[in-house]
Amino acid sequence: MSTEELGVRLRKEREGRGISLEQAQADTKIRLRYLMALEAGDHRLIPGSVYARGFVRTYGKYLGLDPRELVEQLSEDDTPRDEDPGPRRRSAWKLSPLPAALLVGGLVVMAGAIYYWGVLPRRPEEPPPPPPPQVQEPVTPPAPVEPPPVADPVPPRPEIRILREDIGDEVRFRVAAASLQVTIELADYCWLQVYADDRRVQEGTLPPGTVQVFTATRTLSIRAGRPAMVLVKVGERELGPLFQDPATDPRTVIFELEAP
Q1: Residue 209's CB: how many other CB atoms inside 10 A?
Q2: Strand locations in 19-167, DSSP E?
Q3: Exposed, middle or buried, 155 (CB in 10 Å: 0-12/13-18/19+)?
Q4: For residue 248, how far is the Cα from the chain centroid?
Q5: What is the DSSP string of 92-128?
Q6: How far apart are CA 59 and CA 27, in angstroms?
Q7: Long-range contact list for 71-80, CB < 8 A, 24+ apart?
Q8: Residue 116 located in a structural domain
């Protein structure tokens, strides 16, 4: 089974169970971009075949499929096994006999050392000189320790309210927040054209994995050639992909800032 056929099977099983990609991400702990790559049959976005097989096994089990069957259809393990090096040969060596003359000489030296250190009288050692008198220095009381300053409490961040409206080939988001900041992340190659307050700030095709942050004071307009490949975050709030179908036609997404 090819990766494209496997992706179609996973996507149909998820849609048949009425599960969104965001819910699957929260349940399986697999990032949204990797779930989209599995369903699109494009494993180039997944870092390595080991991660790909692990994601297929976890996602298939989550959708009620046989994970072992999915992994076996995806690829086979052809890792070579280590060969047994066999027993090692032991090198035999022989200790040459010590000459008798050398042994006798060593015994004589040892006996002389014992006689010198144990039998001959030693000179009495002189007593060590008395230690100098100790002068007690005055003790300085420790400096008082000041308590650490108490930091001011951090005020809670204002809640961001977002309202989506689909009008033709445009999607409008009314963002009620203190400022307008939009972060986009691409799951695959995609052409983008971005206007911030009627000023063009981006236009061109960007590679997968690109992350860019755009800010505006009033409006932010994003025109995407493959809108399903664009993951969006407004402030600290994750919106995920704006469209689930990879075959979605080019769309324009407009973010309008309103008073919170």
Answers
A1: 11
A2: 161-167
A3: exposed
A4: 31
A5: P--PPPPPHHHHHHHHHHHHHHHHHHHTSPPPPPPPP
A6: 10
A7: 73/1, 73/6, 74/1, 74/3, 74/6, 75/49
A8: no
- End residue of a domain, out of 14, 45, 74: 74
The domain total for the chain is 2
What is the domain range of residue 173?
161-258
Integer CA distances (angstroms), 80 to 51, 56, 77, in order: 20, 23, 9
**Closest among 24, 80, 82, 89 to 55, alpha carbons compared:** 24
Q: Which helix or strand (DSSP H or E) is residue 237 part of?
A: strand 237-241
Q: Which of 226, 234, 253 is nearest to 170 (CA)?
A: 253
Residue 185 lies in a domain: yes
* Distance (Å, whole) CA 202 – CA 70: 41
User: Virtual CA dihedral for 36, 38, 43, 44, nearest 10 degrees?
Assistant: 0
pLDDT digits (tens, 9 = 90+) for 154-185: 655 556 777 788 887 788 888 888 888 999 99
CB-count exposure of residue 232 (10 Å: 0-12, 13-18, 19+): buried
pLDDT band at 97 (very low <50, low <70, confident <90, very high): low
Report pTM: 0.40
* One-letter identity of residue 169: D
Is 110 contained in some domain? no
Q: Sign of the CA dihedral 135, 139, 140, 146? A: positive
Is residue 39 a part of any domain in this protein? yes
